[in-house]
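Dear Dr. K.,

Following up on our conversation at the group meeting, I've run the structure prediction for Hypoxanthine phosphoribosyltransferase from Microlunatus soli. I'm pasting the input sequence below exactly as I used it, so you can double-check it against your construct before we proceed with anything downstream. Let me know if the numbering doesn't match what you have in your notebook.
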Amino acid sequence: MDDTHVSSDLTQVLYTPEQLADRLKELSAEIDAEYKDKDLLLVGVLSGAVMVMADLSRALTIHCEMDWMAISSYGSGTQSSGVVRILKDLNTNIADRHVLVVEDIIDTGLTLSYLISNLRSRDPASLEIMTMFRKPEAAKSEVDVRWVGYDIPDEFVVGYGLDYDGRYRNLTSVGTLSPHIYS
Ligand code: XMP
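The predicted structure tokens came back this morning:
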């Protein structure tokens, strides 16, 4: 769905589908180079990372496997609480594997922090993080994110996998949600 269908719900379109594809191409070249001699396992975080995972994996020129985790971060509306529960675990044993976590967005970094310590306890050969979007507070968190698509302002964004109340995930661009939708 393109943004013309929801234009009154958005205050601004931040990234067009073309810009998102171009940025992913740049990131995928770096990831290609990093993992060219390694067996790469992409771990996508459901459901937001579905679009990033689909596009990143296809932009790569190396083989990769894919697996998924679903976690719930308790919190209401547009805020995450950092209390995390695993809803769906990996199907893959990641011990001695080169794991790249693929995230849609990091806000406070609390969800990711939990996820990373959980995955680290499974003894992967390496563990890196790629996120398409990162908000300012996350940039201050101690979790080291290797690849960032865009650093964005501290506003609630939707589209390209990101939802509000289950909607807007299928928006091809990314935009800021108008406060009248959630206030
Ligand atoms: P934390 O704060 O733990 O939160 O880094 C990460 C999770 O919060 C959700 N989130 C958003 N979802 N637009 C969204 O659609 C946003 O602007 C946004 N900010 C945070 C998302 O589920 C992410 O994984």
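Two things stood out to me. DSSP finds five helices and nine strands in the chain. Residues 18-155 form a domain with the Rossmann fold fold (CATH 3.40.50.2020).

Best regards,
J.T.
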